[in-house]
Specification:
This protein has about 70 residues and is of the alpha+beta class. It has 2 helices and 2 strands; from the N terminus they run H-H-E-E. The longest helix has 7 residues. The protein is globular.
């Protein structure tokens, strides 16, 4: 996982295809956020709208599971 600040993408001159870039409130409690690329969307949300969906990281591997795996 890589951390960044709100002006990161603007500094690079990169604009999102959909959605938005990070805001200062992102990353605080209740305002977790992620920006993913089109490959991630194709792998984890095929034929679905990824905006507003939740992802969970298990062992640093992304997952689009709705509930945590049972241990």
């Amino acid at each position: 996982m890589v951390g960044t600040t709100s002006g990161y993408f603007e500094t690079l001159g990169v604009h999102p295809v959909r959605g938005r870039t990070f805001q200062d409130v992102d990353g605080t409690s209740g305002h977790e956020g992620a920006i993913v690329n089109q490959r991630f969307v194709a792998m984890h949300f095929p034929r679905e709208d990824p905006l507003g969906r939740q992802i969970t990281l298990y062992d640093a591997a992304p997952s689009a599971q709705q509930t945590p795996p049972r241990t």
